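Minutes, project huddle
Topic: does the predicted pose make sense with 5CA bound?
PN asked that the exact inputs be recorded in the minutes so nobody has to dig through chat later. Recorded below.
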Amino acid sequence: MRLSRYFLPVLKETPAEAQIVSHRLMLRAGMIKQASAGIYSWLPLGFKVLRKIEDIVHEEQARAGHLAMLMPTIQSADLWRESGRYDAYGDEMLRITDRGGRDMLFTPTAEELITDIFRAHVGSYKDLPLTLYQIQWKFRDEIRPRFGVMRGREFLMKDGYNFDLTKEDALHAYNRHLVSYLRTYERMGLQAIPMRADSGPIGGDNTHEFLVLAETGESEVFYDSEITDLTFGDREIDYSDKAQCQAVLEEFTSRYARTDETHDEAEFAKVPEARRRTARGIEVGQIFYFGTKYSDALGATVTDREGNRLPVHMGSHGIGVSRLLGAIIEASHDDKGIIWPEGVTPFHAGIVNLKQGDSEADAACEVLYDSLKALGLDPLYDDRNERAGGKFATMDLIGLPWRITVGPRGLKNGVVELTSRRTGESEEMAPEQAIQRIAKIYGTSQA
Ligand code: 5CA
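Predicted holo structure (tokens), as shared on screen:
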């Protein structure tokens, strides 16, 4: 993409309404624009990152054997009356009346609708296990929408639902989700710690929240510092292997790590004092096992081998897709702007032409731009007639992890400059070498 053709409405001033750094930077970098309280338009740069996050979620869900689908945002109240949640959900539910006077609502979550789909189409143990998920907009009429996409009223959520014959199988689904979430967040450059939590209106008593530690987090958390040494890394996992998934769950949840809702001082005191930590965290996901709560209420049963009809065991599993942009920025920025982890960056590298209009500089930039594209990479070329300082400031603000700077002086010596956004370190090298380095970083090989 050429910046002269892009829509990147960056703001010079710090917006007064933004209280936390991720909200400020998303507005300044022209990623989002508030439409009304807690509701945002996603401008091209923000939408690009949102898509990258969605892609990672889809890839990791597919790896775990879960099936993507899509349910509507507007639902009839009838199913929610059947489950008893229509009244219980309270003012957070946005209620709508259609022209026929029917009660509708904007989905805050979808346990009822998925259970209805299940009961209509699945009747036998032979069709299990089954895990369906979607990435769809949700609406919760939060009392205090704030911090931009972090606590929105409209927000994008991945919500997945498992259906299993037995509690044991459903707990395997729970473990599988835990493992797939660990991989998902790590690919986004985040450490998200599973912590024992409270299930709220979803129900059930087996639940973990995934928290990214950050001073601006809305949750108070208590944990054993050893937990921050754990990483999932690139280990191979067989998702159908119950023992393997269980072992990962135990590894990541055996140390003390809880949100304030489930915090227990007496238990916490058993952690050696030097390892006890109290901090704040951003909840980027939550997994639940709630057994037969919804299948009992809605009559979702399957026949087992002996022909008995049994309510299906379920759980639901959510990732805060739009919130993740805020969480990633909170975890990765400096005073100049965002620093995108390579896994989610909107463009792989920026090209800055120090002297637009200089025939050699222009030609060298064109070659770099075309070569990166030929490798399947997505560069952003700042080809505007602006002074160098302004171009650098924009690149730093929007946070591309790598920048190639091209100017007539360097070209005389046959070099361009490759700069890491994270470390700020620059290195001079031949243009071809800069391309190779970037290709290697993103794991694409020269064609
Ligand atoms: N049905 C279950 C799981 S599918 C569910 O709704 N879980 S949840 O309530 O925990 O939401 C899942 C994730 O959505 C949360 O972990 C959080 O990351 C995100 N989320 C929840 N409320 C908001 C909000 N108001 N703004 C942005 N993200 C939110």
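Observations noted during the meeting:
- The chain has two domains: 7-337, 347-441.
- Residues 109, 140, 142, 151-152, 155, 157, 159, 202, 283-286, 316-318, 320, 322-323 surround 5CA (CB under 6 Å).
No decisions taken; revisit at the next huddle.
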